[in-house]
């Protein structure tokens, strides 16, 4: 039994009190004491002493009854102390275990510092390892016990601390190139981001788009300004408001679609360019594909074939290629390409390809489809045509996605589900990414490869709300697939 020093003092005080009371009681009834004669209770004492003479204490040889009283009182006091509560002076009345030394107090700096997080491996998809905090209890029913609140997705909510320093961002996102970016993508992105502007030219019917020719530092032969863009060393400079098209390029690669053209954000300072292009604002620069096939019709040169809405829907229903005008450029497009296009356009809310007339939602008065009086044609579906349906001569069975800026601010109440009309299957790889819940995290890692876009948009903190919108639209699309019992097909053509 371990008794602390305050408890010893406490017992000592009680013992002293008991001893004094015992002595006082003994003195009051001494037979030969003067105090007995003078005490008011002396008579009572004299009357009890003869009776006490026959008590066993005298036969036992004890000289004084006060000793017995003291022993009895002391035993009762010790017994009572064992039932008394601890003194109200904190917890010092309980001694630590003699076998475990108490831990020294932590320094003040450690108490103020945040608790270190467990290391999280930054994988290409940012996937979270399986949750091991849920334990199953053996027995009938195998009920779950010790289960914490479920996480919203299998990915780490913040693979890196948002708003970190450039060094932290580099360690979190820039150690390796994401696997969904091919070597050809990286080479074209380097050309667009660092190539020297050699010449410029206007694109017909696109007043705010400028085509430039680039020369990379590693080129063995100098680039002549007079050469055309057949060698793949040109790019299109678009408006600053079209920076969303750079995000669209990375979205295309993360989903495994591989149908859009490489794009980067860049600030220009070349004296060859007009001042409006060199005012310090970041602009999207899109790689110019030299073999994209265009119609000779000047009014419809943004298509490889003329395809109407009714014709397009009939083609989807019949599971075959419907006859199209403008030659055979679209005759070899595989059926799965339309599922890729519909999924991509729905996430970005791109209307210019499949619904340039805004028939799938109620547009605002300032929408181009309203200002150009295109929305009125929704009453007559035979007048509706698809736009930007393009293929490359080198890959005529695959579509090419251009003008992918879309609408990042489109509210959920106005999402255009007409873009999905007629589509009964979607690519397996893209749907798997949406189901994983890793879309936004993969996009963060991918967008870090474009430092100009990363810095101009405020890094992870600035990009995160935009990527969450894409993540949310992906979940809406998954719910649409489930409600309409649509299927996914394995990618057979990359």
Automatic annotation (TrEMBL):
Subcellular location: Endomembrane system; Golgi apparatus
Compositional bias annotation for Basic residues: 137-146
Keyword Membrane set for record: yes
Domain of life: Eukaryota
Transmembrane segments: 67-84
Keyword set includes Transcription regulation: no
Gene Ontology, cellular component aspect: endoplasmic reticulum; extracellular region; Golgi apparatus
Principal place of residence: membrane
Keywords noted in UniProt: Golgi apparatus, Membrane, Transmembrane, Transmembrane helix
Span list, region Disordered: 89-162
Family label: Belongs to the GASK family.
Protein name per UniProt: Golgi associated kinase 1A
Annotated gene: FAM198A
């Amino acid at each position: 039994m371990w008794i602390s020093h305050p408890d010893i003092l406490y017992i000592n005080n009680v013992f002293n009190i008991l001893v004094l009371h015992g002595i006082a009681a003994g003195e009051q009834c001494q037979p030969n004491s003067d105090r007995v004669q003078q005490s008011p209770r002396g008579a009572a004492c004299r009357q009890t002493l003869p009776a006490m003479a026959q008590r066993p204490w005298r036969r036992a040889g004890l000289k004084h009854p006060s000793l017995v009283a003291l022993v009895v009182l002391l035993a009762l006091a010790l017994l009572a102390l064992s039932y008394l509560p601890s003194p109200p002076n904190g917890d010092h009345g309980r001694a630590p275990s003699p076998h475990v030394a108490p831990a020294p107090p932590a320094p003040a700096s450690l108490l103020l510092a945040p608790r270190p997080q467990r290391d999280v491996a930054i994988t290409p998809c940012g996937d979270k390892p399986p949750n091991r905090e849920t334990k199953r209890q053996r027995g009938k029913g195998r009920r779950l016990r010790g289960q914490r609140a479920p996480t919203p997705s299998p990915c780490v909510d913040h693979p890196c601390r948002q708003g970190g320093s450039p060094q932290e961002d580099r360690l979190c996102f820039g150690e390796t190139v994401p696997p969904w970016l091919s070597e050809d993508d990286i080479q074209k992105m380097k050309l667009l981001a660092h190539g020297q502007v050699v010449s410029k030219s206007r694109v017909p019917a696109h007043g705010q788009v400028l085509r430039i020719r680039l020369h990379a530092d590693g080129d063995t032969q100098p680039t002549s300004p007079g050469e055309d863009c057949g060698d793949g060393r040109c790019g299109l400079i678009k408006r600053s408001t079209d920076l969303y098209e750079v995000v669209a390029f990375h979205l295309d690669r993360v989903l495994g679609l591989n149908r859009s053209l490489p794009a980067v954000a860049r600030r220009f300072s070349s004296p060859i360019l007009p001042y409006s292009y060199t005012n310090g604002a970041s602009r999207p620069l899109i790689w110019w594909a030299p073999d994209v096939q265009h119609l000779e019709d000047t009014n419809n040169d943004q298509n490889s074939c003329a395809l109407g809405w009714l014709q397009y829907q009939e083609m989807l229903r019949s599971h075959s290629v419907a006859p199209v005008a403008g030659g055979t450029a679209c005759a070899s497009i595989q059926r799965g390409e339309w599922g890729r296009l519909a999924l991509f356009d729905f996430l970005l809310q791109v209307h210019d390809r499949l619904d340039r007339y805004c028939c799938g939602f109620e547009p605002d008065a300032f929408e181009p489809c309203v200002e150009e009086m295109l929305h009125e044609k929704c009453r007559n579906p035979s007048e509706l045509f698809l736009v930007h349906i393009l293929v490359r001569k080198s890959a005529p069975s695959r579509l090419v996605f251009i003008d992918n800026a879309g609408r990042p601010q489109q509210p959920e109440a106005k999402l255009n589900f007409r873009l999905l009309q007629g589509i009964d299957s979607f690519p397996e790889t893209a749907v798997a990414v949406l189901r994983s819940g890793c879309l936004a995290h993969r996009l963060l890692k991918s967008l870090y490869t474009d430092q100009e876009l990363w810095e101009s948009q405020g890094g992870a903190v600035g990009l995160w709300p935009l990527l969450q919108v894409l993540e949310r639209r992906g979940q809406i699309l998954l719910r649409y697939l489930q409600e309409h019992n649509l299927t996914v097909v394995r990618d057979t053509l990359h």
